[in-house]
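Z., the sequence and structure:
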Amino acid sequence: MCDSAIDAVHPRFSKKPMFYQTGFKIALVQLSVGPDKAKNVAAAVSEIHKAKAKGAHVVALPECFNSPYGTKYFNEYAEEVPSGATSRALSRAAAEAGVCVVGGTVPERCGDRLYNTCTVWDDSGKLLAQYRKMHLFDIDIPNKITFKESEVLSAGDQVTTFDYRGVRIGIGICYDIRFPELAHLMAQQGCSMLLYPGAFNMTTGPKHWELLGRARANDCQLWVGQISPARDAAAGYVAWGHSILVDPWGQVRGQLDERPGVIIEDIDLKVVEEVRCQIPIRIQRRTDVYDTVSVKQ
């Protein structure tokens, strides 16, 4: 493998991805979600322990894993972070299992505002990161689907990454994956993996779910995991499912169907270095002509 140390000093891409030995094992958990919050949370906790038993170091849950997805549910199911019951359950499960938990998303109440929020807990139960969905899902496809998260939710405004076992991981939520600028900023900050809890629907899911994950992995030359709830055909909002793991070459390494299930895979971080060395787009960007920058620090 060639020496790509230039990535560590080149002004166009100053932060090199962080590595812990050769990688880690991740579990992407596709859960069934119903109207009973306590039952939803208990199922998530059970899967966290099962994933640990199978060797996982990181366990990622889906979007809105503790509540049905829909604007009419967000206020009813909302909790404060980190004092709410769901946060406490995730913290306890992470500590008891000894794993990092990427807690999908929950409707978060903060003052008079609601957010769609992902929490991350380390293996001692400490809150590592909190990300509020930045791009709200407001779409209108005639005769297919109309949905406006902004009627109820407020948008976050912070790019969020965290370090675990020496690996830097970035967080986006569902609709965020459509915005390559956000992914690029997280890659610039040294991420080797991006995780997107998401609930694409039956219109956009078949068209774009896999396409977008592979695109972001290829664009940024890193691993991408997308974690969906399982499909419930009787729900008001029907999720596509098909949680997926994509490697830095843009190849699918694991994918579920619409039913509950778990992807457990070893994340080989040498592949990140391999791709970035062989196709060195990180140092070939024409930042004298264009650039992607964060305007809020």
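Helices lie at 37-53, 71-77, 85-97, 180-188, 204-220, 270-278. Confidence is low (pLDDT under 50) at residues 3-13.

Let me know what you think.
H.
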